[in-house]
Write a structure and sequence with these properties.
The chain is built from 27 helices and 17 strands. The chain has about 600 residues and is an alpha+beta fold. The protein has 3 domains: about 1-215, Aminohydrolase, N-terminal nucleophile (Ntn) domain (Glutamine Phosphoribosylpyrophosphate, subunit 1, domain 1, 4-Layer Sandwich), CATH 3.60.20; about 230-365 and about 455-530, HUPs (Rossmann fold); about 540-608, no CATH class. The strands form 3 sheets. A 6-stranded antiparallel beta sheet has the order 2-3-1-9-8-10. Helix 8 (about 260-270) links the parallel strand 13 (about 255) and strand 14 (about 280-285). The chain is globular, with a radius of gyration of 24 Å.
Length: about 600
């Protein structure tokens, strides 16, 4: 894993500065390339070919490449390219990417199995070619004002160019709606994310920028539906096992996260079939309701892994460290335990496999069950029980049944896909309009809904928005702060459309989630692991707010609300009710804290 950056004019000192900002992404090496037209820079986390030959920017037949990520089938592609006359001097996937572009042009990305964000500079054609992997595992930001084109793995590296920091109000709406900033937007107007499955072609002569989509998941799902159903079902388990094996390729130690949940347990079990004493990692917390350490120990003992764990507290120092590193406001509090987990893993390995993506692909979220329940409940029943459920007291313990019931009843009457998005929302339209006042934009203007029906529509919405800009962004942020590379087998491009092409009862049968994945897991794991209740990975934010004067100040004091974008009366009323124990506003107040902290640190204090 690495950090990449570049721009369309020569300035070695500025390229070096961008690389230094991202040094945590690659502690092993730094490289800069400058000619009369462009500047490219790179921070390296050495994973394949640890020698100096793996140095980047790397040159191949006149092309220059900077690359972040891994292409797992690079050796297969290299053999194919060798038969066509290409020669290689390294054992890196980076050189294979450049050779593949030299041979097949932009279509080369269709052949890659992996995660990537890269830029190839062609001096003769005078152009940049940039690409981001199909599901957005690796980040790629860019800025273009008609003349200057700048890109980087992190937004704050682009800010080294002194770009005007103007808040994007559409992004603010997305943040308070989703708790992250989705689509191609960032918190700052003018800086964009390259969408997953997209390429950029930038012509240096004309300063013309073109983005194009190379991966349409709905097309791939339709292609898979032409395969007989029995064959598809049989292929899923084999492809998953192969996806795990491919992601073990490395010249450095590799391990696996192991929470004790179904997804990470299955990945660890597949690995343990071939490797004994394989290293697995988990983290525990003093508050037992937020800790899954007991289950991870049970699975590790069953599989015979070399299990490493620590009991760690989610204290103010952890919150500060992660918040200070955020490129933009990011409200998923599970980033903090992920940060601690990555720290434990990095003490032993350089690469870890994780179970991220399993819920989106195989149908694991409670909101999918809620969708099915909502389809059969009569509206009169909902009207009768809504007032009663509304009187039930809130709890600080994780995501409780009471919280789920209240959220379910609040948004019951909407169409299924909009209801699903609002179930996931922190501030729905009514609350967000009160919070943002004139800056409010309705959810219908913020997100384009997938053109699909039933459960698949919900999954596609999560894969398009929630997965890349919440789940995967969280893992990239937390792991890269410890220079740890994380790989996600459930997002193998062969697997995702194949599973999504199946009839919904293979994913959600009755109210049992991940039906097919559980059936596959019976080959590897005991029944009590496969069918234990889903827990998730989150943080005690309600307790944090009540116990931390520092957090309370950032939520409600004049000093941190002087940006004028939030309604003061609403914010202070929620804070007062929360501190008095009258209502649990933790999720809403947490987003306000994150937003105010980011604005104060980046816009009020001169930035980094």
């Amino acid at each position: 894993m690495c950090g990449i950056a570049g721009f369309n004019w020569p300035d070695q000192a500025l390229a070096e500065r961008m690389a230094q900002i991202m040094r945590h992404r690659g502690p092993d090496d730094q490289g800069v390339f400058c000619d009369g037209q462009v500047s490219l820079s790179h921070r390296r986390l050495a994973v394949l070919d640890l020698s100096e030959l793996g140095h980047q920017p790397m040159q191949y037949r006149g092309l220059v490449i900077v690359h972040n990520g891994e292409v797992y089938n690079f050796r297969q592609l290299r053999r194919q390219l060798q038969t066509e006359g290409h020669h290689f001097s390294t054992d890196t996937d980076t050189e294979v990417i450049a050779a593949a572009f030299d041979r097949w042009g932009p279509q080369c990305v269709q052949r890659f199995n992996g995660m990537w964000a890269f830029c190839i500079y062609d001096p003769k054609a005078r152009r940049f070619f940039l690409s981001r992997d199909r599901f957005g595992i690796k980040p790629l930001y860019y800025y273009f004002d008609g003349q200057r084109f700048i890109f980087a793995s992190e937004l704050k590296a682009i800010l080294a160019h002194g770009i005007d920091k103007k808040i994007d109000l559409e992004a603010v709406n997305l943040f308070f709606y989703q708790k992250y900033i989705g689509r191609d937007l960032t918190i700052l107007a003018g800086i964009r994310k390259l969408l997953p499955g997209h390429n950029i072609l930038f012509d240096l002569g004309s300063s013309r920028l073109q983005t194009s989509c190379y991966y349409e998941i709905c097309d791939q799902i339709e292609n898979c539906r032409s395969i007989p159903l029995r064959d598809r079902i049989e292929q899923v388990g084999d492809i998953l096992a192969d996806a795990v094996r491919l992601r073990l390729i490395a010249d450095v130690p590799v391990g696996s996260f192991l929470s004790g949940g179904l997804d990470s347990s299955l990945i660890s079990a597949i690995i343990s079939k071939d490797q004994k004493d394989f290293k697995t990692f988990s983290v525990g917390f003093p508050d037992a309701s937020y800790s899954e350490l007991h289950w991870s120990k049970i699975v590790s003992a069953r599989l015979g892994t070399d299990h490493h764990y620590q009991i760690m507290d989610l204290d103010e120092s952890v919150i500060r460290a992660v918040c200070d590193a955020m490129d933009e406001p990011f409200g998923d509090s599970s980033v903090f335990p992920t940060y601690l987990l990555s720290k434990v893993a990095r003490s032993q390995v350089t690469v870890c496999l994780s179970g991220d993506g399993g819920d989106e692909v195989f149908g694991g979220y409670d909101t999918y069950k809620a969708y099915k329940i909502a389809a059969i409940l009569p509206a009169c029943l909902i009207r009768s029980i809504r007032p009663v459920v509304g009187l039930l007291p809130d709890s600080e313990r994780k995501v409780t049944s009471v919280f789920k019931a209240k959220r379910f009843l609040r948004d019951f009457g909407q169409e299924p896909i909009r209801r699903h998005l609002d179930w996931m929302a922190t501030f729905n339209d009514v609350a967000r309009k009160e919070l943002l006042r004139d800056a409010f934009l309705p959810a219908g203007q913020l997100l384009e809904l997938p053109r699909a029906e039933g459960l698949l529509a919900l999954q596609l919405a999560d894969i398009r928005y929630y997965l890349p800009e919440d789940i995967l962004k969280k893992v990239d942020l937390a792991s890269m702060l410890h220079s740890l590379e994380v790989r996600v087998p459930f997002l193998d491009y062969r697997l995702v459309p194949l599973v999504l092409s199946l009839p919904p009862e293979f994913l959600l049968r009755g109210l049992q989630t991940k039906w097919l994945l559980r059936r596959i897991a019976h080959r590897y794991l005991p029944w009590r692991i496969i069918h234990r209740p889903k827990r998730g990975f989150t943080s005690p934010i309600s307790r944090w707010i009540r116990s931390s004067q520092w957090i309370q100040d950032y939520i409600g004091s004049d000093e941190y609300l002087d940006h004028g974008m939030l309604d003061l009366q609403m914010v202070r009323q929620m804070l007062a009710e929360h501190l008095a124990g009258h209502k649990d506003w933790a999720r809403q107040l947490w987003l306000i804290f994150i937003f105010n902290y980011w604005v104060h640190r980046n816009l009020r204090c001169g930035g980094r």
